[in-house]
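Comment thread on ticket #2218

A.B. wrote:
> Attaching the input chain for the structure job we discussed in standup.
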Amino acid sequence: MDVAEQSASEARQRRRIRRTALLLGLVALAFYVGFIAMGVLRA
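C.D. wrote:
> Ran it. Output below, let me know if you need it in another format.
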């Protein structure tokens, strides 16, 4: 594997990790907003 292939592979991996982190962040945000909404509606 030459340098160009290795850097392209690393770029793909970074992009996949960034997309996964963003997705997990959105899921966490949805739970957070959901708990706040439940607390407000029950009060």
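A.B. wrote:
> Thanks. Noting for the ticket: The chain is about 95% helix and 0% strand.
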